[in-house]
Protein 1
Amino acid sequence: MANYEIDITMSTTTVDELKNEGYALYAFKAVQTASKGGAPLVWFKTTSFLTSTSVTWEEEYQAYISTDEIVANGVVTATTYCEIDLAQTANVTQNGNISGSAGGTANAISLFNQGNAPWTAGISQLSGGVANPMCAIPLHGNGLDVIAPIEKVLLMFTSNTVNTGTVVYKSYSQGALIDLTTGQQRAVSFDIDNGWSWGTSTWAKAVPANESLVPLLITS
């Protein structure tokens, strides 16, 4: 089981201004799926940041279903879920019970709807001991969705007040999309006026405010 970490450094001036102006640090996690109609969710949120802050997570997953609709600024709650590993399948019964079983697509998590009731579905990943949903996709009756988690994380500071699980289609502010597929630890810095920086490295890219997040975080 792999552990991942992003270390963020900021000046005391930036930290003071962020806190005084009501900013929080938000994170979004990327996935790969052929299913259409998916949406990225706020995966991680904190106001407990200092001049040196680390965002960490583990390769531990849950598959979930929900009755919440996928709408902009709506919140999707993982109403029913089960622990799941890569290359396993989460089976959803007509009554909305969910359980994992062996067998599935390699490096991905499959969700199989055994009934004809439609659900909102997705996967959650553990960060700081808490599993929050990363994405939401439609799971139709008798349908099979396959979702592969990708170790890419979008970080942004914003004063918008939203909770984990919120459907967000466009970035609230400038962010940094950080690729950890070739390394389990990255170091970046943030300045409230100059934005994110990571030197000359090519494992991250800037994401401007109001950018569409679906092409960045829900890839096919």
Protein 2
Amino acid sequence: MFVNLAPRFAFAVTLLAAVLTASCADTRGGSIPYDRSLAAPDEPKIQTLPENYKIAPLDMLSIKVFNSQDISGDYAVDLAGHISLPLVGEIEAVNLTTGELDQKLTELLGKKYFEHPDVSVAIKQSTAHVVTVDLTAIRRGEAADPQIYPGDIVVVDGSKIKEFQKQFFQSIPLLSVFRPF
């Protein structure tokens, strides 16, 4: 008498997988206590810029020209270090203090358009505070956790194993069909 064990084996494997999956799903993971509310985040700390701060790419400037609503406004410094204003055009602002840019704009606007223009320049948002940390040193306990503030952009370096896997699958064309990304 011949007994086919394949269906019973498949049923047993399926049942075992279902039991293991169900046992993982009945509790929440990690050490976060879900039964109480989390603490409020730290208050953001206001940091003032030094008086001789030089304008950097991606800074946001507030430029006001007295009696000129068309020119007054907020201007972003582009990656090349320029701002573009009506009447004046593109101006290099990078590596200038707000006072130096104020003088430059006063001079340019006074040549053709205004008699004794009153210009004020202020930094509305600065990119001066760039936080670069060594993640390996933090994991080893050799460095403290960095302070993260609202508006910070956190970039984490990629995995070397994933990069190797990507290069491996790209080097063998037939296996690139099975790549997971």
